[in-house]
Amino acid sequence: MKPQKIVVIGLNDQALELNEELQKIVDSTICFCGGVRHYNLVNKILPLNAQWYNITVPLSGILSVMKESHNDWVVFASGDPLFFGMANTLIREFPEADVQVYPTFNSLQVLAHRLKINYGEYKTVTLTGRPWEEFDKALIHNEAKLAVLTDRKKTPGVIAQRMVDAGISYYKMFVGECMGGEKERVTNWNLDEVVFETFEVPNCLFLEQTESKPVQKGIDEKQLTTLPGRPNMITKMPIRMATLAYLNLHNKKVFWDIGACSGSVSIDAKLNYPHLEVVSFEKRPECEEIIQSNIQKFRAPGITLRMGDFAELDKTDLPLPDVAFLGGYGGRMDEILDQTNNVLATNGIIGFNSVSIKSADSFINWVNSHSYTLLTNTLLTVDDHNPIRILVAQKMN
């Protein structure tokens, strides 16, 4: 039996005119799929017996239909379907199929042509149905030029707000709307301006630095805003960096900082391991402004801040951690550790910096009474400060 054939045709937003080869393929096919926008562009050139299926998220629906049909398909997609597009999914999901791709210019290419810029110099990031991880990494790595694919939630305004909130306002934004279509529009903005704007969908954008500002990794505690009158209530930089190294964050995904105080641990975790999703918890209301100020000062995008008592907060909407740091526990260490254990992934890590023998013993006793292995028990002294014990334990089941 011949393999299933899937032809993927890339479209722009103009009325479709197929060449002779593609029109023959369309005329001889029954099963078609694409977005609603694509159907509005192609419905007049489909055969009378055409069966059309809308592509919607999650893609598992349309993929199941395609797999069960065993028919040949024509799939309409946007631009170049191999540029973060549908063709990549089809090649992965249908390894035995004959997948043929007929691209056109993607939206970022069209926008670059209108702006007359060398788009090969730009780091490309897609936020279309994707998390913020790669975008945050690009900002932290101080990429001077970024090309960004957006979606209906991660709009130019939302992207600009995220950057401004993190103190990253030194970019110009060039937005392209409905590239190649009748509603095409190209505009440029300062980030504080675009925050309040709405744009036609689909859109894409370029970001260009107006100045270069490499981020600082390993922040001296004297540079951080702290609680008034309590300058020593902060994890010292050498202790902080050693603790983060012991937590083995390079292969972790979600980091919970419980009792964030000034946000120093969260900020250095994000700047040194930009792939991490970082969630900071702090119950003292006066710390909220302090943490936000430090996030902006040191330009750490993508830190989620939850204010309130950790033990009482609703955490069901948060990504579950595979690593946590106990920065504060308000005299309820066992309760906080029990709650953390309930959501921590198997083989997950919990770290703690002890300033007293009593707190170290309490942490170790909890570890020994649960299914954890103590990985690190290191005593460090910085300058004339009291010794700090770095404790790290791993969940075994």
TrEMBL record:
<dbReference type="InterPro" id="IPR035996">
    <property type="entry name" value="4pyrrol_Methylase_sf"/>
</dbReference>
<dbReference type="InterPro" id="IPR014777">
    <property type="entry name" value="4pyrrole_Mease_sub1"/>
</dbReference>
<keyword id="KW-0949">S-adenosyl-L-methionine</keyword>
<dbReference type="Pfam" id="PF00590">
    <property type="entry name" value="TP_methylase"/>
</dbReference>
<comment type="pathway">
    <text>Cofactor biosynthesis; adenosylcobalamin biosynthesis.</text>
</comment>
<dbReference type="InterPro" id="IPR006365">
    <property type="entry name" value="Cbl_synth_CobL"/>
</dbReference>
<dbReference type="InterPro" id="IPR050714">
    <property type="entry name" value="Cobalamin_biosynth_MTase"/>
</dbReference>
<dbReference type="InterPro" id="IPR029063">
    <property type="entry name" value="SAM-dependent_MTases_sf"/>
</dbReference>
<keyword id="KW-0808">Transferase</keyword>
<dbReference type="InterPro" id="IPR000878">
    <property type="entry name" value="4pyrrol_Mease"/>
</dbReference>
<dbReference type="InterPro" id="IPR014008">
    <property type="entry name" value="Cbl_synth_MTase_CbiT"/>
</dbReference>
<feature type="domain" description="Tetrapyrrole methylase">
    <location>
        <begin position="70"/>
        <end position="194"/>
    </location>
</feature>
<keyword id="KW-0489">Methyltransferase</keyword>
<protein>
    <submittedName>
        <fullName>Precorrin-6y C5,15-methyltransferase (Decarboxylating) subunit CbiE</fullName>
    </submittedName>
</protein>
<keyword id="KW-0169">Cobalamin biosynthesis</keyword>
<dbReference type="InterPro" id="IPR012818">
    <property type="entry name" value="CbiE"/>
</dbReference>
